Amino acid sequence: MTGRERDVLIEELEQKLDSFDSAERKEALSALCEKVRSGEITLPEPGTDVNLHCHTFFSYNTYGYSPSKFAWLARRRGLAFAGVVDFDVLDALEEFLEAAKMLGLKGCAGLESRVFVPEFSDRVINSPGEPGISYHMGVGFPTSRLQGELGDFLTNLRKLAQQRNRDLMGRVNKHLAPVELDYERDVLVLTPSGNATERHICLAYARKAKESFDDDNALQQYWSEKLGVDATSLELPESRDLLNTIRAKTMKRGGVGYVLPDKGSFPLMAETNRFILAAGGIPTVTWLDGTSEGEKAIEELLEVSKDTGAAAINVIPDRNYGTGHGDEKLANLYNLIELAEKLHLPVVVGTEMNSPGQKFVDDFDTKELSPLVPVFLKGAQIFYAHSALQQQCGLGYTSEWAGKNFVSVAKKNEFFQTVGSSLQPQHEDKLGGLSEDVTAQEILDKISHSM
Questions:
Q1: Cβ distance 37 to 332 under 8 Å?
Q2: How many CA atoms lie less than 13 Å away from 367 in the CB half-sphere?
Q3: Backbone angles phi, psi at 436, to 5 degrees
Q4: Strand 106-116 to 133-139 pairing
Q5: Which residues of the chain, if any, have pLDDT below 50?
Q6: What one-character DSSP code corresponds to residue 427?
Q7: What whole-number distance in Å separates Cα of residue 174 and Cα of residue 250?
Q8: What is the DSSP string of 115-177?
């Protein structure tokens, strides 16, 4: 086999990682791992880059990445830690963690949703134009196979989201007629497990319009009229700018399909945190850029959140520095990280990858981000350690065992950071079966002896 033929085969296998057929994804990943073992593919040593916030195609990934594909690319890029986060579901969890272990990648999995924060009912937090509504996360779940009330809560998150989408689409259909969508036929086919998002709906509208107007001028005129913009600059038929404009003009505040949510539209943050804790995850506050009225009161917001169980905070660094963002957002980012350190809140960072143009991993060597890398790396070490310990023996960061064995959050962070930096994926199984009686030092000794 020539070098070119080998490269083509590898590329074909990588493409199969995004198949909606789980068996095909697993077979392709196994084949790629075999090529690593045989020396046909060389993987780099892990560096210090991290991305713990990547959406997969189980909610919406702008590049169509499956959990296996993200794990593979993260390992090929030499990421130190990687994590998946999907809206309202844990569908990616088992596949991603299995793929990460196969690849020797330190990983964790979680979900993102929106919650209502009663104490901020008159202040916008991080969901633009929606007072009291906040994006919220659970990080490091050990399994998606939840039973009883936990399973019901998770199922209800999906149902609520899908009903909001159907209602939204119905309103937007009236405005965009004659381009109208059928939810099952046009939207759900774009995602492998029936968990569509607003971004899937936007893509479906763009493709439906292309089918309806085979003449470019007619398509351009249609979108100009319906969106109230000059569509000549939107790079039809389905560019990033078009999809974002469809969403902004029809689905967000002021759009024809938008309905202001009330406190019953989303679960309470306190309820969601109880679910996350009971399911073995870490409740995590999300932060946008510090410019909203709610985020200007970040200390109050964090105290309210901590009172209901939140123990970490999520940041998307790329939206807070660089061209077009100004000095205020960068200063807000640094102030937020300083506060997180003061409160001993581990920090989740990532790029999301649920909108066109978002990076695979942040530019951590920039002058703006490089001073923050130690904080980001420490957070990643803690989340990975939690994920591994919670999955193997139920002794994670938010477990009763952790509450009993550390005199302070700072000491707990120190332990989990040490575990996360020293534990290797191939040795995670050695933590299985540890009892509640084990000491923190005994866990560290066990990891040390396995190296």
A1: no
A2: 1
A3: -65, -15
A4: antiparallel
A5: none
A6: G
A7: 11
A8: EE-GGGTTSB-SSTT-BTEEEEEEE--S-S---HHHHHHHHHHHHHHHHHHHHHHHHHHHHHT
Count of other CB atoms within 10 angstroms of residue 428? 21
Residue written as tokens 């389905």? 238
In this predicted structure, what is the pLDDT of residue 5? 77
Model pLDDT for residues 54-71, shown as the tens digit of each residue? 999 999 999 999 999 999
| Segment holding 399, helix H or strand E | none
86 forms bridges with which residues in the sheet?
Answer: 111
Q: What pLDDT is attached to residue 451?
A: 65
Instruction: Copy the structure tokens of residue 325.
Output: 């963002």
Q: What is the reported pLDDT for 297?
A: 98
> Which residues have a Cβ under 8 Å from the Cβ of 45 and sit 6 or more positions away?
78
* Cα pseudo-dihedral 64, 66, 52, 284, rounded to 10: 90
CA–CA gap between residue 360 and residue 11 (Å, rounded): 18
Each residue of 368-425: pLDDT tens digit? 999 999 999 999 999 999 999 999 999 999 999 999 999 999 999 999 999 999 999 9
Buried b (16+ CB within 10 A) or exposed e, 191-217: bbbebbbbbbbbbbbbbbbeeebeeee
pLDDT tens for each residue of 325-348: 778 999 999 999 999 999 999 999
Based on C-alpha coordinates, what's the Rg of the chain?
22
Which is nearest to 56 in space by CA: 45, 41, 68, 44? Answer: 68
pLDDT reported for residue 213 = 94
Which domains does the chain show, CATH number per domain? 1-42 (no CATH), 43-146+279-450 (3.20.20.140), 157-250 (no CATH)
Q: Tell me if residue 82 falls in helix, strand or coil.
A: strand
